[in-house]
Amino acid sequence: MASLKTLFLHPPSFEGFDGGAGSRYQARREIRSFWYPTWLAQPAALVPGSRLVDAPPDDLTLDDVVPLASAYELAVLHTSTPSFPSDVKVAEAMKARNPDLRIGFVGAHVAVHPVESLAASPAIDFVARNEFDFTIQEVAEGRPLRDVLGLSFREDGRIRHAPDRPILEDMDALPYVIDVYRRDLTIEHYFIGYLLHPYVSLYTGRGCRSKCTFCLWPQTVGGQRYRTRSVDNVVAEIAHATRLFPQVREYFFDDDTFTDDLPRAEAIARGLGRLGVTWSCNAKPDVPRASLEVLRDNGLRLLLVGYESGSQAILNNVRKGTRLDRAREFTRHARALGIKIHGTFILGLPGETRETIEATIRFAQEIDPHTLQVSLAAPYPGTALHREALERGWLESEGLVDGRGTQASVIGYPHLPRTEIFRSLETFYRRFYFRPRKLVALGGEMLRDRMVMKRRLGEGLDFVRFLARRRQEAASSSPTVANP
Ligand code: SF4
């Protein structure tokens, strides 16, 4: 069937912004980094002749993307809560350039707020709710919008909703994203500080069995069940990728929790071991040593681990489902096996106090992951944390990011104002990284690998700039929280 000429666009927003729709956090990171637009590549692979444009890593501005409007019949923009106001401006400018362009928004933000999103601007013709791969394929085939399951749209001046689309069960029905990466992206533009460069990331499944109250995707577009592609399908895509991208040094599986299904993870690992690739993935801090050994023996280099907090009470409050004693044991095993860990932490979750912040910093120093990142609690609409924050009066501001796309502190408590949570982020980073042991370890890595040295020097500069900005903002006593 012939398709509309379709543009998939991850729009430009803040300079260097990697906290948009394809990211699990809300803000640009402390160092320059970019995730792949995998969610958008998936439907792009289903629409023949389409093009995927990822503006942030290519440093494309509004002026660069607006002329594209004239060359397409359909534009699909991936949006997020922090970038939505800016994404609307992009849509309006494109519609002004080509009034016949049909424009749709996809992503968790519009899935949670379809009516408000459509009401935000007449430039938006439709939004896709929840999973949108086959929804967009049908729109691109030119079906009447009212016949496309999962769509909310404008008709005769009113907002209407087609019935929900059933959740996708046959994950192997999704085509490979790797061909779209090859066709439309420059993989050298994608950086993540703790991954080897160049890297490629993709999903082998969607959803997470855990029910963490702050976590957006499982509560919206992914679901709280791990739906997976078959082992053979995943291994075949990586084999294909090794032929398309011989320069790639590492593959990253960005599934919410790749280790949720350990027998499958081990089977995929064995397939990757036969290919001889280096890879890494997301994990909870509860993987048993025997499984870690299998993964390590088959190319696993690094795990991205959500520890979140050093307070068991906070982990319980947010339903993380992990225990500090098991997290300690898991980390010891990973270190003994030579698996690197990038640990992620969140400050400001329910139950946070000055004492729990101190406990979390000490916990991070004690388990000593190779690298870490610290986020401020981000109550995305659609999450239990957002509902809880509204009900309990904790939400002191709406903007998840400041005017530069940097994370803002929006949750505050009577005993712990958001400004103090905001300031503790810098303290956390300083007390973790500026320890002699950590500086020596990172310095040693730089001396052993010239590419690592080049990158780390650039990242170090980014990090110093980040700390300087924090200083300025702390001096003015409260973070900026304006939307763009
Ligand atoms: S385990 Fe990780 S991916 Fe799963 S719900 Fe919790 S934070 Fe989200």
Q: How helix-rich are the residues, as a percent range?
A: 25-40%
Point out poorly predicted stretches. 477-484
> Which molecules other than protein and nucleic acid are bound?
iron/sulfur cluster
Total count of helical runs of at least 4 residues:
18
Number of beta strands: 15
Strand order of the largest sheet: 2-1-3-4-5-6-7
Structural shape: globular
Rg, Cα atoms, Å: 22 Å
Strand coverage percent: 5-15%
Provide mean pLDDT, rounded.
90
Distance from N terminus to C terminus (CA atoms, Å) equals 40 Å
Largest sheet: 7 strands, mixed
| Structural class designation | alpha/beta
Structural write-up:
This protein is α/β, with parallel strands linked by helices and 484 residues long. It contains 18 helices and 15 strands. Strand 3, helix 3 and strand 4 (102-106) form a beta-alpha-beta unit. Helix 14 (354-367) packs parallel to helix 16 and helix 17 (436-448) packs antiparallel against helix 18. The radius of gyration is 22 Å and the shape is globular. Iron/sulfur cluster binds next to loops.
